[in-house]
Amino acid sequence: MQYVVFKNVILQLRRRFAFAIYPQSNWNNEIILYTGFKSKVNLNNKVNVESDFFEADGQKNSLIQIKNEFKIIYKFSKEFNANATMQTFIPDSKKHGYQFLGFEAAYNFAKMKCAIFLTGQNLLNHKTFSSVSVSDYAVSSFSYKLQERNISLGLRFKIF
To answer: Is the pTM here over 0.90, yes or no?
Structure first.
């Protein structure tokens, strides 16, 4: 039987809330988990849950938004590393959400002070993003077009 040996694990919990004169509340909970395995693979996960509630003149508004970011980091050697990211957004209390997949792989040339990298964004190719915002006096919705799926090859360098 083989066990996973941890170098470190960091768990953060951030909570914010606000109350107003009117029956209104705003809660924001964020949980962040960083792992430091004694291996070439590490994981990060960040979850944010935000809830708003407002009541005035007998009308009630409520909103719950969930954001999750999961990242896998690979360090094959000092020169070569890669990471993959999956972001999930569940806006305005809907049961469906948006998932965005991205990656980056980089090879570093230490002597030349440069790196070649390959990056991919929005690999699941979502076309639009829409959301609803609730405040103490209004409800607003918006929608906008997203950058299409892309993969790019690049060069990073230091002059000095």
So the answer is: no
In the chain, domain spans = 6-157
- Residue 114 structure tokens: 């440069």
Helix (H, G, I), strand (E, B) or coil at 148: coil
CB 48 within 8 Å of CB 66: yes
Residue for token digits 């003149």?
Answer: 57
List % helix, strand, coil for the chain (3-state, nearest 5): 0, 70, 30
Which DSSP letter does residue 151 get?
Answer: E
According to DSSP H, which parts of the chain are helical? none
Q: How many CA atoms lie within 13 A of 155 on its CB side?
A: 7
pLDDT in tens, 32-59: 777 777 778 888 888 888 777 766 677 7
